[in-house]
Amino acid sequence: MSAEFEIELPLFVEAVFRKYHYDFRDYAAASLKRRLHTALSRFGCGSLSQLQHRMLHEPAIFPQLLDYLTVQLSEMFRDPEYYRALRTQVLPLLRTYPSLKIWVAGCSTGEEVYSLAILLEEEGLLKRSLIYGTDINAHALRKAEAGVYDIDRIALFSQNYQRTGAHNSLSAYYTAAYGSAVFDAALKKHIVFSDHSLATDSVFAEMQFVSCRNVLIYFNRALQDRAVGLFRDALCLRGFLGIGSKESLRFSSYADAFDSIDRENRVYRKVSVS
User: In which domain, by residue range, is 37 found?
Assistant: First the structure.
């Protein structure tokens, strides 16, 4: 990468923050650089300065650019062992609460949210649950709210689902039409999708379970710490936290607030409020 790119990068993310109030200043540099190089090609710009000029003076391109700045990789029941751990170790304990609030932070296009809704339905908990799916990408949130996915992806989703200890066929939860799978309105009744930034926003409700998977890996250490602090503050005492398979709380300044429930599948329980 050129010396000019390295100089322009902090100026670019500062401009994004000042103009549009999206804060990428503490995102992991290596991943951000790769995505911005792809964006340069997509928008026909030879430098970040050129892309910055277009972003500042052509507001209509920013929603498209946001798709490059955020990572939108997701699938239903990704890492099925994680969902099996939730089914066997977490949901039996959540069953003791009269009502449940669950936060999926960095929900992208909603696959994890619908996965959890199905899990809760099968364990008899969905009727007393409210799932918040949050992300900073408005385009992704609109897709999540629609709950419509390409039918070609359903085979993988179904394979993952069966490995969680499924009680049903995944087809029981969607209707196929015109090359798409549309997930049931009965699931959507218990889901709220909303804009929320782990970089700038605060806790918005007390939760019994927070799931934030494959998001922290895109943050630098300071922003990882901020996010884990938000999860600690959001969770009730003895509430649960799930993170991605390549993520860890080990180096967080909030690590002592959590006990490991399933180390392999990265499931934790809050044990301290300080």
Answer: 3-69
